[in-house]
Write a structure and sequence with these properties.
2 copies of one chain form a homodimer.
Chain A lengths: L3 E3 L4 E4 L7 H7 L4 E6 L3 H4 L2 H11 L3 E5 L8 H13 L4 E6 L1 H13 L7 H5 L11 E5 L11 E6 L4 E6 L7 E4 L9 H19 L7 H23 L4 H13 L14 H13 L3 H16 L4 H12 L8 H18 L16 H7 L16 H12 L4
Parallel strand pairs in A: 2-9, 3-4, 3-5, 5-6, 6-9
Antiparallel strand pairs in A: 7-8
Helix pairs in contact in A: 1-3, 4-5, 7-8, 7-9, 7-11, 8-9, 8-12, 10-11, 11-13, 11-15, 12-13, 14-15
């Protein structure tokens, strides 16, 4: 187990009608003037925005609103938010939506207190500041885990780049999680969210640390829970209990309780970011394609860990005379599961051809030593091989 | 899943030398004048106290010290601490020790800001206040989970009563967890700690809530991890990795991440408190006796849950033609495990006779409706039956 610090201070309020507590929570956390930042029209049409606004009014909180976030949060929107926060003397941002809405709120919360341009933080031009305005969330899409995490990802649409940053000061002060708000999510978006939270878990699971037994069992338990409940929400989108399991799993998959004592990998996320940057695919769908390809490429690095994964998550009975086959069987069942919830597992399923694989491999964000990932340190050539595996229908 | 709020804001700093960060953390959390509150002579002799003091001096922090806590923290000590805090204008308490030291620090942190007597909170005479001085911890005994919990237990030695309170404001601001500090723990104390953290998990596990799948798997994973690592620390007390698993499990067993969405039982803790109140036994040893007896008494209330426990925690293969037998087999293996680490499973193992069982059953702290526990609502007569089971060598 490696040394670690863990402080997940977010107050989670979970259950039916949780969004109605927004005003009360903002008051508790000292908001004076709140920006309610939400996504598309669905929050307006469903009545969610009205309920949140009513809750703020009832608590006597001042606020202003801004809607219109698209998936894969764009830098231009973050800049607009920052201008608005300054003009309106905002001191608290309440994000009503999914990961994109929350991530742009987080970026704005830090950017508004910074003199330069917010992209400086993401391109490495400036160190990320240790202060940000507080952020609260009303979650509508369980997926990114941004409602409890210290991380965010922003897309620079001009440069076709998607970049992430993790820092404690952007962890939300509170998050209101009502599983009922997810009943109306389309099946495709539900499935993308499921892949995303599984990926957050698997990125942490595949580590070279030995003796991370407690967190191993928690990762495995979270994956099993999501796998067991996914068909239920696909069959019946209004199954409260199944939606609740998935919503709570999404938050716990990324607040980093699963990362304690471990060094996660995160190469798959970097590889996926290039897909989104170039092709604007859904993050979860991109991960469903990249992650199995990454697994096949690195599996021989630690067959034992992949066997453990196969057995404990997918009930693969180990073949002690051919451990590698057992390990590969785990990856096959993961793909099978992704397929069962309507997710692609090859680039072709995202309508992406093989023509820009080299370009993507060249653009993958590397660490200072010119490599990416921790479980196996990958060169750009390795990345290209993984993209090729992801593009190969016959693999 | 029941609605819940969860906010575990404690900053955990985990790893070798964690105690040396005490000064830095106190500074971060705004301490001006700290009381270092520690247990017996072991913290002095081992050099731990010196290292902590040096860390405070290096950070330029003012402090005063008070040692001498006995197991099962006593009200008289809490009162002494409160007087000292007021006299010395203390604004932060750093507890260096196990659950007893931390619990008395928590009680003093709240009591020092209260005009009346601190026992008022525990006997129900006054509602617990919403403010307390901040508390930090340097943990030396993984057991009570007090380093990350919102709860504490104090013994009123005059009235032979042990009472607990849970409230958010006493959750530690930070906790420094160095597994090396536990290398010198005697085997008996290590075992008591293991039982205590398992009990915290099992109290939450046995619930009437359906659809608590994620937390079920996490409870089971924690129990398995502790069971797997217990013989390792018994065999080799300086096994860093095994000590680390157990230390982190102890913290996670009681910060209530395992209680999210569930209603825990907690009757066994109330039943055990009467043992400690009358006989001053070690809390963990008391739980090892009470909990299996409680299980046998309530098992038929939900055979399915006990079967799940038996299979997933102890690898009991279900006998589908006799589920009750499978369920009982789980309890038998739990007792077997307790025995394997040197814990008693009957009152006689604590040198307690059957002469005061009625008195204990009469004193068990009941809820307003005259019952205790949530999985099964127990009357004082039920409590007496459980004490009798615990006292019966032949059961």
């Amino acid at each position: 187990m490696v040394d670690f610090s863990f402080c997940s201070y977010t107050e989670f309020v979970f259950g039916r009608g949780a969004e109605k507590k927004a005003g009360e929570l903002l008051k508790k956390y000292g908001a004076k003037r709140t920006l309610i930042h939400y996504g598309g029209r669905s929050a307006e049409k469903s009545g969610l925005l009205s309920r949140v606004e009513e809750s703020l009014s009832d608590a006597g909180m001042e606020y202003t609103t801004l809607g219109g976030v698209q998936p894969n949060p764009r830098l231009s929107l973050v800049r607009r938010l920052i201008t608005l926060c300054r003009e309106e003397r905002i001191d608290f941002i309440l994000a009503v939506g999914g990961g994109s809405v929350i991530d742009s709120a987080k970026a704005a919360a830090a950017g508004a207190l910074y003199d330069g341009d917010v992209w400086d933080f993401f391109c490495g031009k400036a160190a990320f500041p240790k202060i940000a305005m507080p952020v609260g969330t009303v979650l509508t899409i369980p997926a990114a885990g941004s409602e409890g995490s210290d991380s965010m990802v922003i897309t620079n649409e001009e440069e076709e780049l998607k970049r992430g940053v993790s820092i404690q000061c952007i962890r939300p002060a509170f998050s209101l999680l009502n599983p009922e708000l997810t009943f109306t999510l389309p099946a495709y978006q539900t499935a993308c969210g499921i892949v995303d939270m599984m990926a957050h878990t698997m990125e942490r699971y595949f580590t070279n640390e030995r003796h991370v037994e407690l967190t191993d069992t928690w990762c495995e338990g979270l994956l099993r829970t999501v796998i067991r409940n996914a068909p239920k929400v696909m069959e019946n989108p209004c199954d409260y209990d199944a939606r609740a399991e998935i919503m709570w799993a999404g938050a716990m998959a990324h607040n980093n309780v699963l990362g304690c004592g471990r060094v996660g990998d995160w190469a798959s996320h970097q590889l996926e970011h290039e897909l989104t940057g170039l092709y604007d695919v859904a993050h979860g769908a991109g991960l469903a394609v990249v992650m199995p390809a990454w697994m096949k490429y690195v599996l021989r690095h630690d067959v034992a860990r992949f066997c453990q994964f196969a057995e404990r998550v997918f009930d693969v009975q180990a073949d002690y005379f051919d451990m590698e086959a057992s390990a590969f069987e785990g990856v096959r069942r993961l793909e099978q599961f992704f397929t069962s919830i309507g997710m692609p597992t090859r680039l072709s399923g995202l309508s992406i051809g093989n023509d820009r694989l080299e370009e993507m491999a060249r653009k993958v964000r590397l660490q200072p030593d010119g490599k990416v990932g921790n479980f196996v340190r990958l060169t750009p050539d390795d990345c290209l091989e993984i993209y090729r595996l992801a593009g190969d229908a016959k693999q």
